[in-house]
Inverse folding.
């Protein structure tokens, strides 16, 4: 039973436009959410996070939105750049557990 | 600049062999983690450690053990490798405060093939 779901395996976005990556979760007790980005042949790198007591967190071009009633998390990248092409993992935590989604591969088109 | 290194980028082993995967971090982090990444399954936590000689099971510990004799080093051990342990193995570390709320820094990964 997947507790953290990224339903889109891949997404293609034109350079300069907005990329929106989605993540749904099932456990309302999750207290912290994170996004990691992974390039091929490299380990994931931390991108942005949000506590369950907030509904938005912004860091430069990256904004994460949390809708607790819908159990939905989204990452917005504006504007999208070629270097954003990567696999993005969302993750949710509760005490000593961390659950990652399967990832979404983002392609930024020239 | 945080650095997490893993002993091998690629490893080929035979079924039944004992396999050691080593991870070293240079930032004096208390927490260390081992994940595996498989296509269509994302990252799954195998084991983690929040202190020397301490270890906790993650979601998929079966078939694995770990060792943390020194703060900077966290080893993953496959006692008897099996083909279903063919995977990408990722090590990570983070500071103590808030097990996951502190950013995890990942190593480059070890791609293990078990024949």
């Amino acid at each position: 039973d997947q507790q953290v779901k990224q339903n889109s395996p891949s997404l293609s976005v034109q350079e300069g436009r907005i990329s929106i990556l989605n993540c749904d979760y099932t456990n309302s007790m999750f207290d912290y959410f994170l996004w990691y980005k992974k390039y091929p042949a490299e380990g994931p790198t931390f991108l942005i996070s949000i506590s369950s007591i907030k509904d938005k967190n912004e860091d430069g071009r990256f904004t994460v939105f949390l809708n607790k009633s819908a159990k939905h998390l989204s990452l917005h990248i504006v504007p999208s750049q070629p270097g954003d092409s990567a696999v993005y993992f969302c993750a949710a935590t509760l005490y000593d557990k961390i659950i990652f989604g399967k990832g979404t591969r983002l392609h930024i088109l020239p | 600049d945080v650095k997490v290194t893993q002993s091998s980028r690629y490893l080929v082993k035979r079924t039944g062999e004992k396999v050691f995967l080593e991870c070293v971090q240079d930032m004096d982090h208390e927490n260390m983690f081992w994940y595996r990444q498989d296509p269509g399954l994302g990252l799954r936590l195998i084991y983690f450690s929040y202190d020397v000689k301490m270890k906790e099971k993650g979601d998929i510990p079966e078939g694995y053990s770990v060792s943390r004799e020194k703060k900077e080093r966290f080893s993953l051990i496959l006692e008897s490798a099996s083909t279903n342990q063919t995977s990408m193995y990722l090590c990570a570390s983070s500071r103590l405060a808030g097990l996951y709320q502190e950013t995890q820094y990942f190593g480059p990964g070890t791609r293990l093939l078990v024949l």
Summary: DSSP finds no helices and eleven strands in chain B. Residues 9 and 102 of chain B are 26 Å apart (CA to CA). Chain B touches chain A through 25 residues (CB under 8 Å).
